[in-house]
């Protein structure tokens, strides 16, 4: 069984409980970040086990949820909805297509694009995905009161908002930094040497 380090992990696990990944001393200044890492790892592990039973991998069920709810979508729209990248979405759609859960059809409005749509087989899968998510929710929130679940959800939403804001600020700062470097000649262009 994995044990936490006494100095860094102290107070992170409840009485008589151990954290699942040792908390290195260097992570002592980021206990919330380390807890998020551990929680995300375990959540994805359980999601993977539950989804494998119905022929899906983590993340694929989210794509299917969007398709079931919104109907056929362009792949670019799925990338935006999932906050993903094109390469990852291409692999996900290809795997879902090979499993028979989605199919491509030409877009009636854009000859260059195709629409990804759920198949009849995927509609039969929907109830199983809902059951998996319900079970995962029960596992994750076992022992919490309704009020504690509400507080946990609000806290997680605030943490997400903080990181979304930080990412937006970082993107703006990177763009500004790149422009400044370019103006000062700090960026090397093609053919400028090393």
Textual characterization of the structure:
The chain has 194 residues and is mostly helical. The chain is 61% helix and 6% strand. It contains 7 helices and 3 strands, in the order H-H-H-E-H-H-E-E-H-H. It has a 3-stranded antiparallel sheet. A hairpin with a 7-residue loop joins strand 2 (102-106) and strand 3 (114-118). Helix 2 crosses helix 6 (120-141) and helix 3 (60-70) crosses helix 6 (120-141). The longest helix has 39 residues, at 146-184.
Provide a short characterization of the protein structure.
With 194 residues, this protein is mainly alpha-helical.
Quote the average pLDDT. Answer: 83
Shape type: globular
Give me the secondary-structure category. mainly alpha
Stretches with pLDDT under 50, minimum 5 residues: 1-16, 179-194
Characterize the main sheet.
Answer: 3 strands, antiparallel
Helix content: 55-70%
Contiguous helical run count: 7
Order of strands across the widest beta sheet?
1-3-2
| Radius of gyration from the alpha-carbon trace, in angstroms | 22 Å
**Secondary-structure element string:** HHHEHHEEHH
Distance between the termini: 51 Å
Strand segment count: 3
In percent, how much strand structure appears in the residues? 5-15%
